[in-house]
Amino acid sequence: MLIQWYPGHMHKASKEVKEILPQVDLIIEILDARIPFSSQNPMLAALRGDKPCIKVLSKSDLADPVVTQQWQTYLEQEQGVKTLALTTEQPEKMRQLTELCHKMLPNKASSDKPIHTLIMGIPNVGKSTLINILAGRMIAKTGNEPAITKTQQRIDIGHGIILLDTPGMLWPNVENKNSGYRLATTGAIKDTAISHENVAFFAAEYLLQYYPDLLQTRFQLEQLPEAEQQLMEAIGKKRGCLRSGGHIEMDKVAKILLSELRAGTIGRISLETPSMMEKELAELVIIREQKEAKKKARKQKWKGSANL
């Protein structure tokens, strides 16, 4: 699935991040605990260098706690990276973030100079809510749809820490198609930019494989269908999503499934695991190599025809 939603303010913000990084002591990247890999910005990984980084797994109350622990262990294998699994329902735990900032920069913490942190995250990941809790006042605008923050902000949250806030940023090209679907499933992309049905079918297939019991309980299904098409039809019948002639309104079913998954009413669900991503990354390398081979073959063919 190609993501065709990259507003101009995101492009502007990515340029600003590159310019401001030399002034930053530490990076705080807010990830969606349900998709820690797919919600990481590859641009940041390329630019961060050896700067310490705290990866905050936001919305951890919506994610599978066993999988979240796996992700924390996996992410902290990288030099200079620490993780925190947080939720907006635990504001006191959120304040542990300031303590961790000081622990990661002991020399800076003992001086009079403030710690300058860059806080980043994809749209709709809870970044603005976290900032407001840390600051103890309403500073960042919040909302249930992506792309609320439009400009960079400099925020003094006390405790010797200054946050440099940036708009929620996606990136122009999401190479891994499954990551694109996961971003859409969690609501990181505006619903107007995608097909509800395509995304819901992806989610249905995944849930049938990894969380069948939660599906069966939530939608009160006597027998769980084997395929996503039949699952969507069964949900449609249960929820009365019927048109004349008994046909299922798939768009309506798709909206129900996605909204309940996003809200956590189906249960605590993670959409990717470290082992799953390792496999997908290996497949992506093969795809890149195949594309490069085709590109070279086309060039050779063009050169050959030009020499005739």
UniProtKB/TrEMBL annotation:
PANTHER family: MITOCHONDRIAL RIBOSOME-ASSOCIATED GTPASE 1. GTP binds at residues 124-129, 168. PROSITE patterns: G_CP (PS51721). This is Ribosome biogenesis GTPase A. NCBIfam families: GTPase_YlqF. Required for a late step of 50S ribosomal subunit assembly. Has GTPase activity. Gene3D superfamilies: 1.10.1580.10, P-loop containing nucleotide triphosphate hydrolases. One of its GO terms (molecular function) is RNA binding. Its main location: cytoplasm. Belongs to the TRAFAC class YlqF/YawG GTPase family. MTG1 subfamily. It comes from the Bacteria. Residues 14-172 form the CP-type G domain. Pfam families: MMR_HSR1. It is found in: Cytoplasm. InterPro entries: G_CP_dom, GTP-bd, GTP-bd_ortho_bundle_sf, GTP-bd_ribosome_bgen, GTPase_MTG1, P-loop_NTPase. Keywords: Cytoplasm, GTP-binding, Hydrolase, Nucleotide-binding, RNA-binding. GO terms for cellular component: cytoplasm.
